[in-house]
Amino acid sequence: MSDPSPSTPSTPSTPSKPTPPDPVPPASTQPPSYIKLAMRNMVKKGGKSLFHFTLTTTGLLALLVGLAYLTR
C-alpha cells in the first residue's frame, strides 16, 4: 500500500543539507608559499616567537662560552 515500487527511488523524509564547496582551491591559483605562511604565523604569535628566539640565542651563546672556557 505505502510501499514504493522498486523503480522509484525512495527519498528521505528530512531534506538533506547542500554539500559545502570543495575546500581544494582551483589549479590556477597557487597556495601561499611556506615563507609567507611562516611570517603570518610569526606575526600572529609574536610573543611566543620572540621568547623562543631569545631562548635559542641565549642557549647558543651559553654553549659557545662554555666550550670556549673548556678548551682554553
Biggest sheet overview: none
**Based on CA inertia axes, which overall geometry fits?**
rod-shaped
* Class inferred from helices and paired strands: mainly alpha
Overall average pLDDT? 79
Percent of residues in beta strands? Answer: under 5%
Order of helices and strands: HH
What is the percent of helical residues? Answer: 40-55%
Distance between the termini: 99 Å
Features:
single chain, 72 residues, mainly alpha, 2 helices, rod-shaped, DUF3285, transmembrane helix, DUF3285 domain-containing protein, transmembrane, membrane
Briefly, what is this?
The protein is mainly alpha-helical and 72 residues long. It is 50% helix and 0% strand. The chain is built from two helices and no strands.
Architecture overview:
It is a single chain. With 72 residues, the protein is mainly alpha-helical. It contains 2 helices and no strands. The longest helix is centred in the last third of the chain and has 25 residues, at 46-70. The chain crosses the membrane at residues 50-70. Residues 1-14 have a biased composition (Low complexity). It holds the Pfam family DUF3285. It comes from Halomicronema hongdechloris C2206.
